[in-house]
Write a structure and sequence with these properties.
The protein contains six helices and eight strands. It has 248 residues and is of the alpha/beta class. It has one domain: Zn peptidases (Aminopeptidase, 3-Layer(aba) Sandwich). The structure holds zinc ion (ZN).
């Protein structure tokens, strides 16, 4: 967040890519950067990879900031970038902490992927989920599960089941949350999202989206770090860590 909004092509975007690569490497992950030209810019997905066994699990979060805060109540700010604390530095924070705390000897193949260019839909020349579309299209093989986390840092966190997601995979994660008695996971359907899980689902891959779409600062200049809480990040991190290590 201190580097500034991570809009595609910006200096902060490049700095954050370098920083994420460093964080993954220092936690012992093999890092790959996937670059794709788009609109005269470079879309860059950053993946930390570890393990070769089955199952193959991908956890993803977008790291880019939306170019325009077009939901801002102040009309003069609607062409300003979104700071993107919750949307979606929150997801990246959880993935990088998982990179540090996941056991190194897990009997799974795990990829932690910071996805680029999710958040420019409805802006001329852009679309939603550009990075995840590239990542899904270039997979060599079929992962067993893809879990996307997006907007999971809200201090008032309420994660409902997302309608487009694979419901079996969603149930696995919500069962883990119930077992851990994590109240931020509410086992009821609510929104249907056009998010980074869709490119995977379209290819027949089990994918789920964990998101709290009830966030008053969504796509505004007020999506800043004071709206996000460590307890919310912890809740999501705890559930994912337990889900990943269950039956290990
Ligand atoms: Zn967004």
């Amino acid at each position: 967040m201190k580097m500034g909004p991570r809009t595609v092509g910006s200096r902060a975007h490049a700095q954050v890519v370098d920083w994420m690569v460093g964080e993954l490497k220092s936690a012992g992950w093999t890092v790959e950067i996937q670059e794709t030209p788009y609109n005269g810019f470079k879309i860059r997905n950053v993946a930390g990879k570890r393990g070769a066994a089955k199952p193959w699990i991908i956890l993803g979060a977008h790291f880019d900031s939306r170019l325009w805060a077009d939901q801002d109540s102040d009309r003069s700010k609607r062409k300003s970038p979104v700071p993107g604390a919750n949307d979606a530095a929150s997801g990246v924070a959880v993935l990088l902490e998982l990179a540090r705390v996941l056991p190194k000897d897990m009997d799974k193949r795990i990829e932690l992927v910071m996805l680029d260019a999710e958040d420019n839909g409805d802006i001329p020349g852009w679309n939603w989920c550009l990075g995840s579309e590239v990542y899904a299209s270039r997979l060599a093989g079929k992962p067993d599960a893809v879990v996307i986390i997006d907007m999971i840092g809200d201090a008032d966190l309420n994660i409902y089941r997302e309608r487009a997601s694979d419901q079996g995979l969603t149930s696995e994660i919500f069962r883990t949350a119930a077992r851990l008695k994590i109240p931020q996971f509410i086992n009821e359907l609510k929104y249907e999202m056009d998010d980074d899980h869709i490119p995977f689902l379209r290819r027949g891959i089990r994918a789920a989206d964990l998101i709290d779409f009830d966030y008053p600062y969504w796509h505004t200049t007020a999506d800043t770090a004071d709206k996000v809480s460590a307890a919310s990040l912890q809740a999501v991190g705890d559930v994912l860590l337990a889900w990943l290590t269950e039956g290990r």
